[in-house]
């Protein structure tokens, strides 16, 4: 049975979803490797040590959610119809999780205090004069793009083209009708999951 050809609008929304997912994931994954917070920690003898923490040091949530969203974008091609609505909902949740992670990282101070303690080789330490960079907002923007990608999948995904049978693993043909199959052919048919008795 041949599949109904996808309309230009359907292909357009699919392409937009892939673009939003890729861009959102790149923004999130790039931002978490950058400095999100920085400050100074008072050391021995009145010294002051500069400390900084990356987004991944402050929270692992954005990274994990971006990876989930990318996996969901790939899964769109493996499922069909209404199942894609579930994939879209998963992408929306992943995007929301990335947004939440960006907010958590932006407001976190415990992570920077832990960095200060580590640099001072103390069991506890505190960072002062804490400033924030713009990178958490970049991660937040990436999360919003992932939410938009998930919303597109939920709304339009059921009409998107699916992976056709031409991309599926080929199956070996059974012996031609009328030709006697030997015991070896019967065993091979059973191995392939076929019914050799017809």
Keywords:
single chain, 198 residues, mainly alpha, three-stranded antiparallel beta sheet, 7 helices, 56% helix
Structure overview:
The chain has 198 residues and is mainly alpha-helical. It is 56% helix and 10% strand. It is built from 7 helices and 3 strands, in the order αββααααβαα. A 3-stranded antiparallel β-sheet has the order 2-1-3. A hairpin with a 5-residue loop joins β1 (35-42) and β2. α1 packs antiparallel against α3 (61-75), α1 (8-31) packs antiparallel against α6 (135-156) and α3 (61-75) packs antiparallel against α4. The longest helix has 25 residues, at 83-107. It is elongated.
Structural class assignment: mainly alpha
Instruction: Give start-end ranges of low-pLDDT stretches.
Output: 173-178
Instruction: Look at the structure and give the mean pLDDT.
Output: 81
Helix and strand element order: HEEHHHHEHH
Share in helix = 55-70%
Oligomer description = single chain
From the N-terminal CA to the C-terminal CA, the straight-line distance is: 22 Å
Q: Indicate the proportion of strand residues.
A: 5-15%
Main beta sheet: 3 strands, antiparallel
Strand arrangement within the widest β-sheet reads: 2-1-3
Give a nutshell description of this structure.
The protein is mainly α and 198 residues long.
List the helices and strands and how they pair.
Elements: H1 8-31, E1 35-42, E2 48-54, H2 55-58, H3 61-75, H4 83-107, H5 110-120, E3 128-132, H6 135-156, H7 183-191
Antiparallel strand pairs: 1-2, 1-3
